[in-house]
Amino acid sequence: MEPADAIAQLQAFAARVEALLERNQRLAEENRSLRHQQEQLVAERSQLLAKNEQARSRVEAMITRLKSLEQHT
Predict the structure, then answer these.
(1) pTM of the model
(2) I need a labelling partner for 50 at 20 to 30 A (CA). Which of 6, 28, 41, 68 fits?
(3) Helix, strand, coil shares of the chain as percentages rounded to 5?
């Protein structure tokens, strides 16, 4: 193998390693962002479930009151 060929191969390898490192950095940042987004969505889901439960309880209480009023008339 000629020294020029070895140098060219080494440069190509170094460029490939650099590209892989950059890709790894981008994917790590994307992963962090997605994890943060997931945490926010889980918290939002929890809040929505709690609001849904409160609304359900209020509707059930209204139905009970209406049935009670209906029985007293």
Answers:
(1) 0.69
(2) 68
(3) 95, 0, 5
> Which residue is listed with tokens 């390693």?
17
Give the DSSP letter of residue 18.
Answer: H
Cα–Cα dist 38/35, whole Å: 5
First to last CA, the chain: 103
**Residue 72: predicted pLDDT:** 83
The predicted pLDDT at position 62 comes to 98
Q: Where are the domains of the chain?
A: 26-73
